[in-house]
Amino acid sequence: MNRHLLSGADLSHADALLVLDTAEELAQLADRPIKKLPTLRGRTVVNLFFEDSTRTRISFEAAAKRLSADVINFSAKGSSVSKGESLKDTALTLEAMGADAVVVRHHASGAPHRLAHSGWIRGSVVNAGDGTHEHPTQALLDAFTMRRRLNGDRPLGTDLTGRRVTIVGDVLHSRVARSNVLLLHTLGAEVTLVAPPTLLPVGIDAWPCTTSYDLDGELAKSDVVMMLRVQRERMTTEGGGFFPSAREYSRRYGLDRRRVAVLPDHAIVMHPGPMNRGMEIAAEVADSARSTIVEQVTNGVSVRMAVLYLLLSGSTEITEVTA
Ligand code: CP
């Protein structure tokens, strides 16, 4: 494994399987009365969040605490960032406090790369979502969830070769889509991105996936349908000129009961959250048995434990889980 995790492309096939298999082992902890390992005792993990988060921030905190690391939670709101402090000075402050790992979410694409390669921080940097760029631990927890649901009771050592994953919606603003495409390609899946032409980024032809504007044409052959949130906060007006209206978007690209009925019986429905219920996904679909949305959140803790463990412990053996 690299020292940092910045992109879904940072992981080789062997690295990705190592993270997923380690997460499987660590997931056993969730069934224990005491959900803690002493593995990262004495290590400090800083959660550096310049942008809002519910799932990622809480699950990184839970993951670090379950590995007995000391956790410092930094939120830009209420910090000296509001007085104009720079990313560099914030990073130097964290370094002075002895951070072994910095988990960073930032509104600027590339901020985690800057932290990792600036020399300001000696520890590992984990990208927890940068602008519209990447969110690699989301891709890992998504792959973990797909593997568990599609590869049966013994997912250890398996990848997603030949699985068809359809990712639908606001690809233009989605760091989840890019990281998923990169990681799923490494794991052997065939990814199709479905979106209106206005919500596909320039340069998409170079991504290792295919694209389509026709959701209905993709459903019957999908093992996974992953719905993306329409990121209205990144659009200047409602729809931002990207689509005529929320209703029109929903009609063309929303996942409702009628569309779910076309999916193969084994197919699953995913969403990274937070959701716009009733827009990209109908509430009854989000709450259905095919939906893995709550499972994805649960799996996020095990996957982030695995990432922190592998980056910080320098070991790939978790003897404490099975002892
Ligand atoms: N999926 C995800 O990144 O959610 P949060 O923004 O709540 O962390």
Question: What does this molecule look like?
Answer:
With 323 residues, the chain is of the alpha/beta class. The chain has 2 domains: 8-135 and 297-312, Aspartate/ornithine carbamoyltransferase (Rossmann fold, 3-Layer(aba) Sandwich), CATH 3.40.50; 137-291, Rossmann fold (3-Layer(aba) Sandwich), CATH 3.40.50.1370. Helix content is 35%, strand content 14%. It has helices at 13-27, 55-66, 87-96, 111-117, 136-150, 175-186, 246-253, 257-260, 283-286, 293-313, 319-322, and strands at residues 44-49, 70-75, 101-106, 124-130, 164-168, 190-194, 210-212, 224-227, 268-270. Strands 7-6-5-8-9 form a 5-stranded parallel β-sheet, covered by helices on one side. Strands 2-1-3-4 form a 4-stranded parallel β-sheet, with helices on both faces. Helix 1 crosses helix 5, helix 5 (136-150) crosses helix 6 and helix 5 packs across helix 10. The chain is globular.
Task: List its salient traits.
Rossmann fold, 4-stranded parallel beta sheet, globular, binds phosphoric acid mono(formamide)ester
What is the tally of beta strands? 9
* Cα end-to-end separation: 25 Å
CATH superfamily heading of the largest domain: Aspartate/ornithine carbamoyltransferase
H and E string: HEHEHEHEHEHEEEHHEHHH
* CATH topology label of the largest domain: Rossmann fold
Describe the sheet with the most strands: 5 strands, parallel
How many structural domains in the coordinates? 2
Put simply, the count of helices is 11
**What hetero molecules are in the model?**
phosphoric acid mono(formamide)ester
Highest-level CATH class of the largest domain: Alpha Beta
CATH architecture of the largest domain: 3-Layer(aba) Sandwich
**How is the quaternary structure best described?**
single chain
Strand content bin? 5-15%
Q: Tell me the Rg in angstroms.
A: 19 Å
Tell me, rounded to a whole number, the average pLDDT: 93
Which regions are unreliable across 5 or more consecutive residues at pLDDT < 50?
none
Shape: globular
